[in-house]
């Protein structure tokens, strides 16, 4: 007999960072990049709940009376921040969105997604955006069900400088 999971979507707390860290590692492994996770639960606490708040967090917490190992634990999360587009204005950027495998197909992902959309609307964002891996068709289909548009061809390529590259380049600038 299948278990019906009950959960609550709420704002993340500092005390959630250890669980979020493990879910971040789980997501990175799913994305075939598990070896790239360098963050720690302590840094998550500092960056999300310290003096300067660099990100916001929504979590889906399983009911304490769930009859599984997930009772009272976090089954999914969305990590996001606000940015500014000089053409359109304030936006919400979803950096990470993940629901652990045993919590899929129960509405947890949809509940988290609807919650972050409400945040963007409440904060009067002009848009909401995110990246998705081109091979993750399940995620692409999920976003399209909400009316999302693929703007890859419109915005160009995404570039990055790593921490070490930044330090090296900066050290050469007079």
Write a structural description.
- By secondary structure, this protein is α+β, with helices and mostly antiparallel strands.
- The protein is built from six helices and five strands, in the order E-H-H-E-E-E-H-E-H-H-H.
- The chain has helices spanning 17-30, 41-49, 108-122, 137-145, 152-155, 163-171; strands spanning 7-11, 56-62, 74-85, 89-99, 127-130.
- A five-stranded mixed sheet has the order 1-2-3-4-5.
- The longest helix is centred in the middle third of the chain and has 15 residues, at 108-122.
- The termini are far apart.
- Keywords: Acyltransferase, Transferase.
- It comes from Octopus sinensis (East Asian common octopus).
CATH class: Alpha Beta
Largest sheet: 5 strands, mixed
- CATH level-two architecture: 3-Layer(aba) Sandwich
Looking across the biggest beta sheet, what order are the strands in? 1-2-3-4-5
Distance between the termini: 68 Å
Instruction: Please report which band the strand proportion falls in: under 5%, 5-15%, 15-25%, 25-35%, 35-45% or over 45%.
Output: 15-25%
| Count of runs of 4 or more consecutive helical residues | 6
Overall form: globular
Radius of gyration: 18 Å
Q: Please give the oligomerization state of what you see.
A: single chain
Total DSSP E strands? 5
What order do the helices and strands follow? EHHEEEHEHHH
Keywords: Acyltransferase, Transferase
Protein name: Diamine acetyltransferase 1 isoform X1
Family: Belongs to the acetyltransferase family.
GO molecular function, one term: N-acetyltransferase activity
């Amino acid at each position: 007999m299948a278990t019906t999971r009950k959960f609550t979507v709420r704002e993340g707390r500092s005390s959630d960072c250890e669980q979020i860290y493990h879910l971040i590692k789980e997501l990175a492994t799913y994305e075939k990049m598990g070896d790239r996770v360098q963050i720690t639960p302590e840094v998550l606490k500092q960056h999300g709940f310290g003096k300067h708040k660099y990100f916001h967090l929504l979590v889906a917490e399983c009911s304490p009376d769930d009859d599984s190992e997930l009772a009272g634990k976090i089954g999914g999360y969305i990590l996001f921040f606000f940015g500014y587009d000089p053409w359109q204005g304030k936006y919400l950027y979803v950096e990470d969105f993940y629901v652990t495998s045993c919590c899929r197909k129960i509405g947890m992902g949809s509940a988290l997604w609807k919650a972050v959309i409400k945040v963007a609307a409440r904060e009067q964002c002009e848009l909401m955006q995110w990246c998705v891996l081109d091979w993750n068709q399940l995620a692409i289909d999920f976003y399209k069900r909400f009316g999302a548009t693929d703007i890859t061809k419109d915005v160009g390529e995404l570039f990055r400088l790593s921490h070490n590259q930044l330090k090296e380049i900066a050290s050469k600038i007079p």
